[in-house]
Structures are given as C-alpha cells and as structure tokens.
Amino acid sequence: MSASDSSRSVRSLAHVHRNTEQHWVGDGFPVRTLFAYSDGGAELSPFLLFDYAGPRDFPPTTRRLGVGEHPHRGFETVTIVYDGVVEHRDSSGGGGRIGPGDVQWMTAASGIVHEEFHGRDFARDGGRFHMVQLWVNLPAKDKMKSPRYQSILDADIPAVDLPDGRGTVRVIAGAFDGAIGPAQTFTPMDVWDVRLRAGHHVELPVPDGHTVLLAVLDGAVHVDGGGAIGPAEVGVFERTGNFVILDVEHDTTALVLSGDPIDEPIVGHGPFVMNTVDEIRQALADYRSGRMGHLG
Ligand code: MN
Description:
- About 5% of the residues lie in helices and about 50% in strands.
- With about 300 residues, it is mainly β.
- The strands form 5 sheets. Strands 1, 13, 14, 17, 18, 19, 20, 21 and 22 form a 9-stranded antiparallel sheet that branches. Strands 2-3-4-11-6-9-12 form a 7-stranded antiparallel sheet. A 4-stranded antiparallel sheet has the order 5-10-7-8.
- Manganese (II) ion binds near residues 70, 72, 114 and 116.
- The site of manganese (II) ion has 5 residues, from strand 5 and strand 10.
C-alpha cells in the first residue's frame, strides 16, 4: 500500500476493456460481454463478468423472450435494469419481477436452477430493453452456502446528489458519503449507479487496495492522469490510490464497481465458477442428477 489514510493518492487507469461483438442469451438478451474472468480474473476480482444487454427496442410480442431453465453455482448474479422488465423464477422458491431502477441480487452459492424472461406486460407492449448482468464471485468458504435472493427496488436504493449539480450516486451496495446500499454482500464491495453531468470535474473516494472498475454505459469521461472511457467500455484502475478523478465530457451513465479482491484460484465452466476442476466436475454431476433443484 502506497497511501496512508491521511494522504491523498489518485488512481491511474490501467487499461480499458471493450467488446463490440454482440451475442444473444436465449432470445431476449442481446448482450455484449464487456469483461470476463477468462481475461484478467485476478485483476477484476471479486467481479467475474459483465454482460451489457441493449439498449434495444423490442416490438410487441406474445412470445416469451428470454432464457429458460439453467443452473448456476459458486457466485452471485446481479441484474440491474435501466429500461424494460425482467421476470425471474428459481428452484429455491425465489423469484420476482424487476423494472427500471430495480436490482435483483441472486446468490447462487451451492446451486440453483432458474429462468430469466422479459416481463409479460412489457413483452406485450414492446419497448426499450436495457440492463446489465454482473457476476460477483464468492470466497471458497461461501461457495456451497444456501442460495439467497434479494429483490432491491428503486425506492430502496439511496441516491446521493453530488455538489454543484455534478450528478447523482445511487448506492446499490456498500456506501457513499454516509448513504448505505441495501444489498447484502459476502465480501466488502461498492456498487454505485452514477449519473454525471457534462463539463464537471468529479472526485470519487475508493478504498486503497480494492479493485476499481468504471463501466460507462452511455457518455464519456477523461481520467485524471491520462486515458478515457467511452460508451460500453470498462476502465480498470491500478490497485493503489484512494481517489478516482474524472472530467466528464458528455452526460454519463456508469457503474462504479469496487471490491476487496478474493485471492483464490478461479476455475469456471459455463454457469459454474469454482476454485478447482474437481469442483466443476462435481457441479456438473450435481446439476445432472437434479441436486440443484428444478422449476415447478
Ligand atoms: Mn442465469
């Protein structure tokens, strides 16, 4: 650690992840995977994967758009909705319907089977669909705990106005300026949904030693010390320093992800993320034999 608590040290941008290639998850989620643990897992930890869906306009339909029954084990999926409605149902009895501003924080842990679809009413009317699904790793000691489902509504998420009209920070997890986010997490982390206004200089405090990622969905920022992050790009910051300083070039919607890195091996296969190859084999066997449950 190069910075003591009393000193101010600015984070440099290490590099930027981007991916212009879109693929479909089921028939409902047109996704760009902006980062994945297969490309820099230790540096991204505890975050594993970032799927950015849309924005895309869907015509009205009576079909169910989305992805049917599939498993997860060993981590959490965090779904953040900007536009549209997502319905979810899982084998632990969890489920719900989330819309703009809402977040679903699903802990797969020892294993669930679930389905993810566009909301029925939304599909019938059509409209803009725009969401993020983030995968958050669990430490080895928590990977086989019971599944958990947190439905976090827009109204539950505190919003902190930055001074002088610079923008707003919605605290989904962790804390910002005294506001505490509602999400319960297994390791220390902050997940902030930020809106920044063009022409402003913004300083965001971040814990020294934590991974810090800035995912710009819309807009553009310049990073103090060099570099820029544009639409559908994720900036990865160096590990030391206790401030991220940005010049906001265009009105920006972004997610700030910071977290205490989990210093453990990552072995993943499709919807399973564990620590060893044997644990992946076990996950496949448990799924096939029905030990992760079924949807009724
Ligand atoms: Mn899923």
